[in-house]
Amino acid sequence: MTSQPVNGPLHGLKVVEMGQLIAGPFCGQLLGDMGAEVIKLEAPGVGDPMRHWGQGETPTWWRVIARNKYSVAVDLRAAEGQQTARDLIAQADILIENFRPGTLEKWGLAPADLMKANPRLIVVRVSGYGQSGPYSSRAGFGGIGEAMGGWRGIVGEPDRAPSRMGVSIGDTLAATYGCMGALAALQHRERTGQGQMVDSSLYESVLQVMESMIPEYAVNGHKRTRTGSVLPKIAPSNVYPCADGEYLIGANQDAVFARLCDAMGRPELATDARYATHLARGEHQSELDALIGRWTATLTVQALEDLMIEHAVPAGRVFDAEDMMADPHFAARQAIIEVEDPILGKVPMQGVFPKLSATPGSVRRPAPLEVGQDTADVLQRWLGR
């Protein structure tokens, strides 16, 4: 396939991606979407297990996480493959890896040595527990990081076991923080000429988005627990039943709640002592949710949406993939794009975010379908072999 013109704010940067599954490769996807040339090193014949992950008869996750990448077959357990990796990394701006700490060192690819050969190199290391500390050598997957970082403990209904998000949020958060660290390190390198290591752990990436969980306990002795679809004391803010589906309404501010009451034909609720203030609504959250739910159940999703728009109440339907692909706002902003695939044809998938006005990112080439399909091309362009 002929690649589209290269663009994006990271155009000209060279990235070597070592690792597999989600955390490291998603970091590579983000950098590639922003214009970097990403060379993915894969075990000959086997490749990344992500090639086979996903739902349905034809796994498609690989088409997303490996877009904008080149596949180079390298046996990192063999001396020849390790030397090829060293040579490529010597030409790179960024190295991404998400092996268990100590693995690179075992293969003779210690980041400290790689940075001696290439002082401008930025090494993004994504792992379960970080590169130091008593747990650093443990195997760690995304779900384990979510549990340790506090996420799993607060997701789900209070009378059931902890639940999961439905997506691999721990992995993607660690990858996103790894990408953010790489961009910060590039700015430092611009000033000093020196690279550095970026240590992004799964559990700390989850911990970073846990809002005030730690100080709430430290200051007030309060431990957050599972609360289902509501935030305690924040009302109304819930998913409510309609005659033909479900609808999310967030009207917990006083002025917004008053507009919701008008939409319900119950303006008196806005001045009712039980609901007139944020604190009062929080104390009567269950009864208020039940009251609103009885009203929404008499309406279709479309009828309720029309009312919420008319009264400027923040609200929205609960989308699935079919809804997204049919929605005009997704289409207008190109939130879903089509990438030409040699086997599947045009494959819809999420676009490139965030959107930059002067140097937007793009999907310039589809995921490599064969392990090592770009080996000869990359070795010739990067190493002159």
Automatic annotation (TrEMBL):
Its EC number is 2.8.3.-. SUPFAM superfamilies: CoA-transferase family III (CaiB/BaiF). Gene3D superfamilies: Crotonobetainyl-coa:carnitine coa-transferase, domain 1, formyl-coa transferase, domain 3. InterPro entries: CoA-transferase_III_domain (IPR050483), CoA-Trfase_fam_III (IPR003673), CoA-Trfase_III_dom3_sf (IPR044855), CoA-Trfase_III_dom_1_sf (IPR023606). It holds the Pfam family CoA_transf_3. It is an enzyme of class 2 (transferase). Keywords: Transferase. GO terms for molecular function: transferase activity. This is CoA transferase. The lineage of its organism: Bacteria, Pseudomonadati, Pseudomonadota, Alphaproteobacteria, Caulobacterales.
